[in-house]
Specification:
The structure holds two protein chains of two kinds.
Chain A lengths: L3 E4 L2 E5 L4 E7 L7 E6 L6 E6 L5 E4 L2 E6 L4 E6 L8 E7 L10 E2 L3 E6 L1
Parallel strand pairs in A: 2-11
Antiparallel strand pairs in A: 1-3, 3-8, 4-5, 4-9, 6-7, 7-8, 9-10, 9-11
Chain B lengths: L3 E3 L3 E4 L5 E7 L5 E8 L3 E8 L6 E2 L7 E6 L2 E6 L8 E8 L10 E2 L3 E5 L1
Parallel strand pairs in B: 2-11
Antiparallel strand pairs in B: 1-3, 3-8, 4-5, 4-9, 5-6, 7-8, 9-10, 9-11
Classes of the chains: A mainly beta, B mainly beta.
């Protein structure tokens, strides 16, 4: 079974700090790596995504770093804010296969203390 | 604002009852999905559908069935609810396969408790 392994399960960061969440995958056919953000009482929503032809993608305070050889990717949240407190899911898919089917990590509960 | 609407936010059912969870999307999306979310287990795919009347099993289809009679509506059915099906259920949709875009739009979820 295809897997995406996510760590840590939970993370507490002080306001202004850097939050880092890591994911590793096994299937080398994966070619799309999104991150979803979920606030309490809401469904997950796409935050940022990367394709393996680049090693980094930045959108505001959020950056994905991608290491194809290690089969790892990570989410960095710079200057973390209490409003970033949410559950974060990494995911991966293979556009050549069932390209609309995402495999999700188990999630990271991020708490940013004021 | 486009959305995925799940008709029931909270349900409480008895063991053995038949349960219907309804999902409607207004984005004319081809593909629809049902996930369940449990603490520590993340999002697990139950079933998905890429066209009307078409369905495919996901990773954990046992104990569930689905129905897609119209493009905008995807129903999850628990034929005989059991306590281990107590969970948060999330519906999602995405555009057609040919577009290469698989950005999922999720509903707010249906929290089911089976007593």
């Amino acid at each position: 079974q295809q897997q995406v392994k996510q760590s840590p399960q939970s993370l507490i960061v002080q306001k202004g700090g850097i939050s880092i969440i890591n994911c590793a995958y096994e299937n080398t056919a994966f070619d799309y790596f999104p991150w979803y953000q979920q606030f309490p009482g809401k469904g997950p929503a796409l935050l940022i995504a990367i394709r393996p032809d680049v090693s980094e993608k930045k959108e505001g305070r959020f950056t994905i770093s991608f290491n194809k050889s290690a089969k790892q990717f990570s989410l960095h949240i710079m200057d973390s804010q209490p409003g970033d407190s949410a559950t974060y899911f990494c995911a991966a898919s293979n556009r050549g296969g069932s390209n609309y089917k995402l495999t999700f990590g188990k999630g990271t509960l991020l708490t940013v203390n004021p | 604002d486009v959305k995925v609407t799940q008709s029931s936010r909270y349900l409480v059912k008895r063991t053995g009852e038949k349960v219907f969870l309804e999902c409607v999307q207004d984005m004319d999306h081809e593909n629809m999905f049902w996930y369940r979310q449990d603490p520590g287990l993340g999002l697990r795919l139950i079933y998905f559908s890429y066209d009307v009347k078409m369905k495919e099993k996901g990773d954990i289809p046992e104990g569930y069935s689905v129905s897609r009679e119209k493009k905008e509506r995807f129903s999850l059915i628990l034929e005989s609810a059991s306590t281990n099906q107590t969970s948060m259920y999330l519906c999602a949709s995405t555009r057609d396969r040919a577009s290469g875009a698989n950005v999922l739009t999720f509903g707010a979820g249906s929290r089911l408790t089976v007593l």
